[in-house]
Amino acid sequence: MVVALLALFVALAGTTWAATGGNFVLGQPNTAKTPSSLSAPVAGSKALQLTNTDTTAAGSTALGLSVAGGHPPLVVNSSAKVANLNADWLDGSDSTAFLRKTVPLSLTGSAALNGVISGTNTGSANGLQGRTGSPTASGVYGENTGDGFGVAGRSNGSSAAVYGENSGGGYGVSGVADTAGVNGISGSSNGVQGDSAAGGASGVYGHNSAGGFGVAGRAEHGTALLGDTTDGWALDANGNTTQNRDGGGLVKAMAYINPADSNDPINQCYNSQLPPAQATSGDCGITFNSLGAGTYKIGVGFNVHDRFVSVTPAANYPTTVSALPIFGTDTLELAFFDITHDQYSTTSFYMIIF
Fold first, then answer.
1. Low-confidence ranges of the chain (pLDDT < 70)
2. Phi first, then psi: what are they for 183, rounded to 5°?
3. Peptide bond preceding 104: is omega within 30 degrees of 0, i.e. cis?
4. The pLDDT of residue 96
5. Which domain-ending residue is among 32, 51, 80?
6. Which of 55, 160, 180, 299 has the most Cβ atoms closer than 10 angstroms to its Cβ?
7. Could you tell me if residue 178 is inside a domain?
8. What are phi and psi of 297, to 5 degrees?
9. d(CA 33, CA 322)
10. pLDDT of 15
11. Within the chain, how many helices (H) and strands (E) appear?
12. Could you give the CA distance from residue 157 to residue 264 in angstroms, rounded to a whole number?
């Protein structure tokens, strides 16, 4: 190793010695006007060793290099690593400007635009990527302690802003929250959209383990829930259905009643205005009272005067039916008249209330 040492000063008191062309005098300041060099074919050791044996002062160094401002104090011709070299600055940055390789990594700062960490991939792979093998952790996790988003995605093309893929048995994207686990907002297309190619799966699936809704729809002016199909079912309900009492379209209650059965005249029934466990249980909240031959009073548990009522007699002869809702009550008065025999008839019948 050849080191330019002409400008080496040993800061000791004494007279300055002119060393150009002369000997280097130890213990004294030396000056020279031309470069000085030391070359030695020393195998396996150092060409020059400087040692400061003082143990009392903090500034007792073995070497000091001083140059004019803007000039490097040291020039080297090798890129090999120098062991135990402790540098305070690297490429003009203090050591505190670098993120240390310790777990967990932590970076705190304030950014008006973009993020504290921004990753850009000019190739075809991910800008940011996270991976974990824990079944309870996330490859990428976001948290917002205010009113914003924990994780947000934006796409300026036709692909997904946020994409999730699971090759096992879990979820591609899963959300847990006190309000909406997954929230989608769109100004021109679908807020949330799901697509599945599996025959027994769902494009969008919702599950509620409490007493709420698995999937819910709300529209201010349009259709809250739309089912559309080419050759399948637009709506498939695997269970009973219900609707608010004053809404139209779905059955509110229905029953098959046999007045001749004194033990249990209400043979079959359904009442969508009751809780699910009671909708088809027992008499379904429906009451039956006979007022005489062919005349009955039916109670259904909800106001019926503004509902549509259909009553069909199960008779073997022509029979007319009169169904009169009692205003402001849950009661219907029914009368069955046998046209053939010109008399009121005790016959079983079907009743549907919409």
1. 1-20
2. -125, 125
3. yes
4. 79
5. 80
6. 299
7. no
8. -120, 125
9. 128
10. 54
11. 0, 13
12. 66
Q: Is residue 18 part of a domain?
A: yes
Which tokens sit at 345?
């008839």
Residue with tokens 């053939």: 340
Place of tokens 């809780």: 275
Please give the structure tokens belonging to residue 348. 């079983």
Sequence-ordered list of residues with C-beta below 8 angstroms from that of 328, at least 6 positions apart, any chain? 303, 305
Q: 349 and 326 in contact (C-beta within 8 Å)?
A: no
Instruction: Give residue 99's Cα distance to chain centre.
Output: 28
Give the single-character DSSP code of 25. Answer: P
Please give the residue range of the domain that contains residue 335: 253-353
Confirm whether 304 is domain-assigned.
Answer: yes
**pLDDT 10s digits, 133-189:** 888 888 888 888 888 778 888 778 777 777 777 777 777 777 777 777 777 777 888
The number of folded domains in the chain is 2
pTM tops 0.70: no
Residue 339 within a domain: yes
